[in-house]
Specification:
The protein is an alpha+beta fold. It has two domains: 8-90, no CATH class; 120-164, no CATH class. It is 30% helix and 24% strand. It has six helices and four strands. A four-stranded antiparallel sheet has the order 2-1-3-4, with helices on one face. Strand 3 and strand 4 (84-86) form a beta hairpin. The model has no long low-confidence stretch (mean pLDDT 88).
């Protein structure tokens, strides 16, 4: 995929990711390519261990935090400003500005993604403050709006609960 389609918000082409241990190298993703258009939803489907989560973490550039490394490929992302950027080569400051504000993901296991010692509201608001630059009050208001948008029952109370107090399922 030399040039992504004009309406592609995300064009992943030739993505390969590996993890190195002291004993061996594990190829987690090999030559993955897909395109996501504006207002389009996609599902990455595969067997356990097929690289679904690693692919998503690579797009977010979080795979490095887990010891992974993007070997090859492009992650062309169309920013709301109209600027197209290759996330695979973006510096950490650019990724911090983009992550959470322009691109986000819903983690597969929220119980392991949220810190059990902080309330759900504190953690959502922290992300909003960090990525959107809002003050504490505005971040809390936005956190409430987000919980209401995804229809969390009693959203205002849910903000004050800890992750283990929210029902899964």
């Amino acid at each position: 995929m030399a040039n992504p389609p004009r309406d592609a918000v995300l064009a992943v082409s030739g993505l390969s990711v590996e993890f190195r241990t002291s004993e061996r190298v594990v190829a987690a993703v090999r030559d993955m390519s897909f395109t996501v258009g504006r207002a389009e939803t996609i599902a990455i489907v595969g067997e356990s261990g097929s690289g679904k989560s690693v692919t998503a973490l690579s797009v977010m550039r979080l795979v490095e935090q887990g010891g992974g490394r993007i070997l090859t490929g492009r992650l062309d992302f169309l920013r709301p400003s109209g600027q197209r950027i290759d996330l695979a080569r973006a510096d950490s400051a650019t990724m911090r500005a983009i992550r959470g504000a322009e691109i986000a993901m819903i983690f597969q296991e929220p119980m392991t993604s949220l810190n059990p010692v902080y309330t759900v509201g504190e953690q959502i608001a922290e992300s909003i403050r960090l990525h959107q630059g809002k003050d504490a009050a505005a971040a809390r208001k936005e956190a409430l709006r987000m919980l209401e948008q995804v229809r969390i029952p009693e959203a205002r109370q849910a903000l004050q609960r800890y992750p283990h107090q929210l029902s899964g399922g």
